[in-house]
Each structure stands twice: as C-alpha cells, then as structure tokens.
Amino acid sequence: MAKRTFSSFEIFLIFLLVITTGITVALLSLLFITSGTIENHTGKTLGLRGFPSTQGPPATQSPPATQGSAAPQNSTPSRGPTTTQASPTPSTPEPTLFQNFSGYHIGVGRADCTGQVSDINLMGYAKTGQYARGILTRLYSRAFIMAEPDGSNRIVFVSIDIGMVSQRLRLEVLSRLQNKYGSLYRRDNVILSGTHTHSGPAGYFQYTTFVIASEGFSNRTFEYMVTGIVESIEIAHKNMKPGKIFINKGTVDGAQINRSPTSYLWNPQSERARYSSNTDKEMVLLKMVDLNGEELGLISWFAIHPVSMKNTNHLVNSDNVGYASYLFEQEKNKGYLPGEGPYVAAFASSNLGDVSPNVLGPQCTNTGESCDNANSSCPIGGPSMCVAMGPGQDMFESTQIIGRIIYDKAKELYESASQEVTGPLASAHQWVNMTDVTVWLNSTHTVKTCKPALGYSFAAGTIDGFGTVSFTQGMTEGDSFWDTLRDQVLGKPSEEIKECHKPKPVLLQTGELLNPHPWHPDIVDVQIVTLGFLAITAIPGEFTTMSGRRLRQAVREEFEAYGMLNMTVVISGLCNVYTHYITTYEEYQAQRYEAASTIYGPHTLSAYIQLYRVLAKAIAT
C-alpha cells in the first residue's frame, strides 16, 4: 500500500484541530478543578451553585483483586455482613422485625432523582449539542430491600432511571448509607443498576472520557441523583414488612431486534443452534406481596435498549422501560399522581448490548432501502443515513408501543406468578484490576486483558444513533489522518496496547491517558447476590446477547458444581461502574460498534466469566 501524503489543506486542518483540542483540554482541566471533580480527602467542599462536592475515595486506589482467590483483603465475598466498613450507631432506629414467619421482610421505595432538565447534555448518545430543553417524564430511583426473617442477612436492589451508574455515584451512595445505617448496607449487598435511558441528564462521572461526553461535571445533577437514590432506599427501609416473593418467566415478542446481526453470526453455529433467536426474549419477573396478600411491587429484567427516543430528542424522560413502569404503577396506585403511591414497579436492564427496540430495522432515510449490512452504511450518504426505525409514526409513539408490549407481558407474568422464592440470602463482591486479569483458556494456556482502548468503530455509533461521518462500523484498519491527529494531540498508543487489542485498530488509548484525570476505570467491582434459588449478577456494562447467555450458563454450572442446583441466573446490566460493552471473542473479530467499545480487549468476556465463577463458588461454599 502506498504511503499516504497530506495536502496543504489537510496539514492546516491538523494544525487547527491540534490547537482547538489543546484549548479544549485546558478548559476541561479548569472545569474539573472548579466543579469539585478533584478528590477531597479532608472533607466536603462547596461546588457549583452551593451544592456539596461529595466525592468518595478515588476508584483507581482501590486494592486490585488477586487472581485465583475469592477476593482481595477487605473485599472478601461473604454470606451476610462483611467486616470491611465501620459500624457507627445508626441515626435511624432499626424497625422491629417480626421473625416468626416463612418468607422475607420486604421493603419497597421510590424517590425522584430527575436532576437538571435544561442547560445540560443528555447521557447516552454522546451527541454534541443534545442538550436538555425540558421534561417529558420525571426520573425515579426504585429500591427493593429483602431480608431474612431474623434480619441477619439482607440485599438491596435499586433500579434507577439514568443512563448507567457511575463509580463516583455508587461510592457516594454507599458512604451516605454507611453514615446512617452503619454496616447494614454495604458494597457487597447493595446493587445499583441503571435502566440505560439515553434521555437522562449527564454530568455525574469522574473519568475523562465520560466527562467529555457529558460536556462537563454537574454537582447539581450529581446531588439530585445521590439524594434520590438514598431516599428511595430509606423509604424501603422504613416500610419493611413480612411478605413473600414469587417468580415467573415468559417470552416477549415484537419488542426487540439484534442491531448487530452480522456480529452475532460470528459466534459458532453449534452455539447459535441452541437458541431460537439472536436476542434474549425471556423476561424474568419477581412479584412481591405481604403476608395478607397486599401487593408491594415487582422487579422485571428484560434485554432491551431504551433508545426509542432518538438522539434528536431534547426532553428528559425514562424511555420505553420507564413507560412500562408508569403504566404498571398507575394501575396499582389508583387515585395517585405519577410517581406517588405505595406500589413500586421496576423494569430493569439486562444483557442489552446488541438489542434495539427499533423493530422495523435499519433503513436509509434518504432512499428508504434497507441498510442491514456489516457496515450499516447507505450507498448515498454513508452511515449517517442508516437509522433503525421504531414501530410508531414518531419516537414518542414508538416509546409507548414498545413500553406497552413490555408492560403487557409483565402484567401477564405477574398475574400468573405462583412459584415462591425461598431460601437464604447471600452476597459476594470483589474489586478487580480489569487491565491485568490472567485468563485460563485451558490447563496450559493463558491470555490477559488489556489496558482500556476504544476502536475506530466506536466513533461510528450505531443504527440507533450514528456517530462521526468519517467512521463506519466494522473497521479493522486505522486511518493515517486520524492516527496522525491523535498522535499529535494525545500521543502515540504503545505497541503493547495496540498488540493486545488486535484486531481492533486503536483510535483512543484511554488506558494510557491520565490527564486531566484517568480516561477510563481500571479498578472494577463485580458482584453477585442470591435470593434462594435466584442469582442476580451485577454487570458493570453492556453484555451482548450471546455474552449474557455464556455468563448465565457459566454461573449456573458453578453453583451446580457446589450443590446449588436449578439456580435461575439473572443478568442485571449497567451496575456500579460503567465499562462500555462486553462482546464474545468471536463478535470482537467483526469490530462493529459493540466490539470497538469492549475496552479491555478480546478476552474481556472470558475474564468476567472467570471472575463471576469465583463469586458463585464463594457463595456456594
């Protein structure tokens, strides 16, 4: 291939972009300093608009996990309470728990966590200029507490109408819970999960990549979110009562498609033959009632991207899964306004990485023809013209149609739920340095995960929301223009990171970028909680369909190996810290958007499977 040379105009463009980027980085540095993003270990400081900058310890200083052991010191997977946190006397008296019954103590709570509805970027599409200009629906945190009859062990699951949970958000929530309840609610038994709406406020991250996508950090929105999450848990804590939990499962049709079907086909044919669809259509639902049969709430897990609302939207809202919650809560809370009433219905995220609600599929908006191809590109106009269409006349109607399909199936499963969940509660948690996990392929061969990096196709976006015009999905080679520009502005990626991520062409070597702060997390927490025969795996990102299937199977097999038979394993997505996507090794080779966004390299899924097996074993033994 002939070496490319640059014209005078291209050289001028590079020079101009270098200068512009330098100014941008300088402004971002100033923004970090003035908005309280820099860690403060001596106490709280006042940030913008008088809101406290409530930062926990920096994630990168957490102790890395040791491979081959259940967890690092002070992060031991355990049944019941750990001893990793101080236990001050709770400022709120513990409710008296009636112990003589069969079932669980159950508490449900809901609180507003909307945050800013104007003058802030929306989180999800990373689209410049997609600012909030009003509100369509409020955003809520929905909390569920389950405790054994004697109150000794308990777990907390919180589903939040936000794009994803940031590490900074989780650490602050845990800190406030510790201050109020001592060691009752801890990092091992509290799961925070984002619904993944792409129409919620941004600005609550500490890592530079997400700060750039958010166009800054907002103390205001951060405080609203933390306060709402904590309040929902407090309400659930106060309302705990003896009750029972029932589980049901069913197939949801007509609500989803696979948005990277060509990547899915890279998985072994023998594996694909075991499944009837290239998406997970199963919904798992928990129904909660008290001992008198009074309905308390539900949690539903179903794999679907809340992107019925397009990247042209400027109204804060909870998208299709939020609409399902609205419908269910309005039915059960007769006479109450939306967001009020005792009944709480959460429609939580699952392995939604390659799943779209835009069921009419990708079409060229300028010609109307299909663009369902490996590059998601149109003959005229390229990838920017290739957009997946929802079932409605516009995005508002599509949101309602998809939300109602989800609601209808949940209602059916809820009304027929009869299998009671019984058994002890347990939890396991581990801090892991995901940039340095040794993965055993077999008894003699190992591979390792990589420092974070984003590939070229990351910049292309998806059929649900395209990215930059110059990029397409499926790029397995870089471009000399963008490589030169990156090298001048950010420095060259090391040969080590380029080699580790192959066949991904590295666009941004985020794991080697530390200014003004680290660009991506290296320390990640993995977590499992069990409720009798139900295991909830808290996933720090977006698993694709087949990735989720492999993880569920591996965790189920690990439980069975140690005597816990017939476990139902649920994947709860977007939990605790955000690490982009997790594809299978085979899907990674295709380098569509999801693979280019698998930041720890081709063996990321294998590493997670290995780690979650350790957690399952810790609970079972």
UniProtKB/TrEMBL annotation:
Report the cofactor remark: Binds 1 zinc ion per subunit.
Q: InterPro entries from the xrefs?
A: Ceramidase_alk (IPR006823), NEUT/ALK_ceramidase_N (IPR031329)
Task: Region Disordered: list its residue ranges.
Answer: 46-94
Q: What is its EC number?
A: 3.5.1.23
Instruction: Name the catalytic site residues.
Output: S356
Q: What class of enzyme is it?
A: hydrolase
Q: Which GO terms describe its biological process?
A: ceramide catabolic process; long-chain fatty acid biosynthetic process; sphingosine biosynthetic process
- Give the record's GO CC terms: extracellular region; membrane
For this protein, what reaction is catalysed? an N-acylsphing-4-enine + H2O = sphing-4-enine + a fatty acid
Q: Where is the composition biased (Polar residues)?
A: 52-80
Q: Which cofactor is essential here?
A: Zn(2+)
Start and end residues of each Neutral/alkaline non-lysosomal ceramidase N-terminal domain: 104-610
Look up the domain of life of the source. Eukaryota
Record keyword Transmembrane present:
yes
Keywords assigned: Hydrolase, Lipid metabolism, Membrane, Metal-binding, Sphingolipid metabolism, Transmembrane, Transmembrane helix, Zinc
MF GO annotations: metal ion binding; N-acylsphingosine amidohydrolase activity
Q: Name one Pfam family in it.
A: Ceramidase_alk
Q: Does the keyword Zinc-finger apply?
A: no
Question: Which parts pass through the membrane?
Answer: 12-33
Q: Which residues bind Zn(2+)?
A: H196, H305, E542, Y581
Which family is this protein grouped under? Belongs to the neutral ceramidase family.
Protein name as annotated: Neutral ceramidase
Q: Which organism is it from?
A: Bos mutus
